[in-house]
Amino acid sequence: MMLNGKSLVSSLGTLSPIVKVAHRHQKKLPPTVDAAIAALPDTFPEFCKQVTLMTEGGLAPFSLVPWQLDFSSLILERLANQKASLSVMKSRQIGNTLLLLLIELWLCAHCPRFKVLVLDRTERDAHEHARELRIIIKQMGIELVTDNLSLLQFDNGAQMIFRSADPSTCGRGLRSVNIVHIEEQGHQPNLEETLTVTDALRNNAPNSKVILVGTPNGKQMYYYSLLKSIISEAEITRTVEGIRAETIEPYQQFTKNGVDFAFLINWRAMPWLAEKKDPGFLEEKRRSGVITETGILVEYELEFSESESAVFSPVLVRSAEVDLEPIRQSPHTGEIWYEEPDQNVVYYVGGDPNGGSLTSGDAAALVILRQEGDILSPAYIYRKKSGTSSAHVSRWADAIQAFSPLETRVESNNTGLTWIEQLAALCPSQSIEASKTTESTRPQLITLLTLALEREHLKIPKDSHISKELLSFVVNANGKPEAAQGANDDVLFALMHALKASGYKYFGSKK
Fold it and tell me: Which of 1, 140, 285, 435 would you label with 387, given CA atoms 20 to 30 Å apart?
């Protein structure tokens, strides 16, 4: 249920101000440490104002808006002496991650040996938070004993640790933590296992907290079951619809027991976004051309899909997109050329022929990847639904001969073996390998592609077949990963086979 049956934004005027955290020193700290703490502002809101943000009007101090005041007050005051969990589902661009990092920085500055564990989908993403915080720490003149992207250690022994949410490594070497902060909770494939690890760490710390943050995904993921343990599904729907209709406040807080909380925070809670006119905020997003209507609903309007969960995070897909324009393309032949073949470049090919027949509703797809260092990107894409298998094979053979790849892997299910035999006859000098997708190998292919995206080793053209199919690839109601209803995955599987041909799993991780 909603706390007190109403939005807390309206009652902010009656809240006591956020007071400075009392020094809970167990022993006398060096005078330089006490002096550094004394130099900080006396209240958390004033502390935040020392941080400057780039806005449309230029640099401005980070002044907390009403919902941010309430949220920080909950953590720093009302729950200060209690164990608690907070699950935040929010729109992008509302400053929630920065707010949490500043709350954690404030606590580390004032509480000796305080320990914060910040987890994100990948180590690279976690390190981005550390990088942002290091700039702020330097601006504030706070001293660090250890200063790297995995660990920020303060003079008073407090620590902020930044890691991947991988349950096999996230808790390594740690005995206890005071705050576990998990980003992108809706896109964490192993969230339940990660929480099992971090809950054990929290058991050893008094008044510890776990704070999960993210944008919505489908309703099958573990994060959604956590949300439903506090808010009923009907209440979630009513709240989201009410926020969109602007009949209720865009910041909503829920609790059942006073220690486990859930939040729904919409972009309208940020005054400068809500006040945008001609165009409004969402219209501005639509006109940008970098996000689909589905993306807007999920990432800004708190839309939870009924029964499907996205396999590939929209965050990863967007970060992999680059401005790569075709040099030529033909709807008639189904070909998109991103470059001319270059004998000095290494290429790999993947093909998905399953739908390449007159009776199939799918399409025949071929992807040719170029490799430059550790970076892979499409050089050529073929996707065509109509036509005979021999016509598709002939077109494939022409492309393979032109690019002369190191290896070609083609799906061998259904008619695939026949296609492979025909390709081998037409391309006698080329290595054509069978690549069979089964219930056991499909997850391996998906993992391979996910790793390439997470490590930033794969670059894809904006608004291409690849990006569209990545965003519409979901886990269905039966738990099987496939294209959403009305979408395709032909090019996606051709891409996966090309990745397999490249031996991608042997690439080194991006540092």
Answer: 435
